[in-house]
User: Fold this.
Amino acid sequence: MKGQYFERLSSGCLAMLPLILALVMVPVAEVRSDNHDEDSMGWFIPSNTPAKNVYGGVRVGLGDIDYPDSNQDGSVTGISSDDSDVVSGLFTGYQINDYVAIEGGYRDLGESDFSGTSSGGTSWEAGPVSANLDADGWELGVMGRWPITDRWYLLGYLGWFWWDSEETFVETSGVTVESDSGSDYSIAAGVEYDIGQSDRIVYRFMGAHQEVDDTSYDVNSASAEIVYRFP
Assistant:
């Protein structure tokens, strides 16, 4: 079950949305044309130490969970569902070389809702029914990075996702809350754009796939990410 810490963390990610929009509007005139930018923040992490390969970032996007389909036992009619929600997260990584990085972080997968009327089935009592799934977790994996041009890169990620989920079921007889946790694979792919500024900010646009509840629920998402590469 997610605690108040995770709720604050997710809210913090959403609060970054105005910052993301502002950064996207960076004037073209500020973009440097040289391929090897000087790091004006070199004093922050000395360039001759392994720590110079560390980076961090935030993500905000939209996710889709196939949770409503999983709750249909054939007895439910008049179905109303909302299987999409905002996804967000924080991540950090270590760039081993130009092509490979180790990356991990926290990912909030949002919520999915399901409601309808059951005639009485294997999963539901007769009468109005509804369910809600809330999921999040931590992941760790390997990020591959392949240059297309001097600014654009293709990205591929393969990792492991440690998830926590909370399901709330509402029937005529009452409310049932079930919490669960486990781990499944996590994959993602996308592109990265280096704007060439000395502060080392880059943009990512990623599509990701996570499994929740031992592959019972597939979660697909698309997100915009801002990455800060330390000097």
Observations:
- The chain has three helices and nine strands.
- The chain has one domain: 4-25+39-229.
- Residues 4-15 form the longest helix (12 residues).
- The helical segments are 4-15, 17-24, 67-70.
